[in-house]
Amino acid sequence: MPESISAxxxxxxxxxxxxxxxxxxxxxxxxxAEKMRTEPDRVDLVRVMPFVVLHLACFxxxxxGWNPFAVWTAVALYFxxxxxxxxxxxxxxxxxxxxxxxxxxxxLALWAGTTVQRGSLWWAYxxxxxxxxxxxxxxxxxxxxxxFVWSHIxxxxxxxxxxxxxxxxxxLAKFPELVWLxxxxxxxPILFAASIFLTGVALExxxxxxxxxxxQLLVWGFFISTTVLFHGTACINSMAHLMGKRRFKTDDDSxxxxxxxxxxxxxxxxxxxxxxxxxxxxxxxxxxxxxxYYGLKMMSWTGLIWGLKPVPQSILDEGAHADHHAxxxxxxxERAANQxxxxxxxxxxxxxxxxxxxxxxxxxxxxxxxxxxxxxxxxRKDLSEEAHGLNxxxxxxxxxxxxxxx
Length: 406
Ligand SMILES: [Zn+2]
Ligand SMILES: [Zn+2]
Description:
This protein has 19 helices and 2 strands. Helix content is 55%, strand content 1%. The protein has a domain at 54-306. Mean pLDDT is 86; it is low at 1-5, 366-380 and 389-406. The longest helix is centred in the N-terminal third of the chain and has 27 residues, at 68-94. The chain has a two-stranded antiparallel ribbon. It is mainly α. Helix 9 (148-154) packs across helix 13 (214-239) and helix 12 crosses helix 13. It binds zinc ion (ZN) (2 copies). One zinc ion (ZN) binds next to helix 15.
């Protein structure tokens, strides 16, 4: 008999036991994390049960009801934690666009832990990987490669995407307190949920006029707010490479979208961000609102963080140049459309391309050949790789746009 070239799959019982242990210890990989990462994409039904429960628990609103205090608590916790997703998971741990002390870093990791999006190190590893492989077959959540649904929610349920590759985030993995929070990534969410529940219990006892209670505040402040927070964040993975405009000719399909910016407190300027990742703001110009940046700026006044990195003038000039050419092209296209009498259905002209792009992305999910835009020379993907100590082969930057050192 010829020897099998692929290793046999572990037994069902062993896989279930492993997944249950990983609920508590996310670094538990009996067969090695490297081996897990090379598996094909496959939803781990046992491992994702906490994620499923997070969603199903929202239906408990049928029994606990609602009141204005509970709903506003959910809204407030959405934005406070969306700020943590963008300002901490993304702009600090993933890209190091500002500095803080070791104690400050630990505080930021605790805050980011309340978002229930696994550990900051897991988050940073996957995000840096996205920038290295944007919209190519290695990208875990490219809508062009995997389709809309997988890039939105499927990839995070895949067994191969659970382990953290600490070798890709050496600058963070040298802090044992961060590794501990990343390894036991349910600790902070459980403490957070318990504190919301106890707050509701206390309010029922000491401020009954508010009309809320422990179970109701838990459902609104934790389960509903966290579920909406996840989907708001996931919109960047699934839609920020489909919806909006491309200012910079990056070698991926990242786009700038005002709607996604409102949902994510500034992350919608995704094409800007793919062009230059080492600055603290994603809205490069004053008219591109970036609430996360404004919040980080205010935090810098307290001394908790410092060293916010500006957008280099060369990048601003490049963007202004691209905007000028785009407006000239749009004006001539408008004139041509008017002459052709095709200026009706203007709203449809905006909506249809987005809907079509999402449908095509999903329908062609199995096709890993990513269509590239024929728009001239591409710009290198990850300008902050060197800042993170990543060793992937890098394409040569285009002449005239040398990235400044981060
Ligand atoms: Zn990024
Ligand atoms: Zn992206």
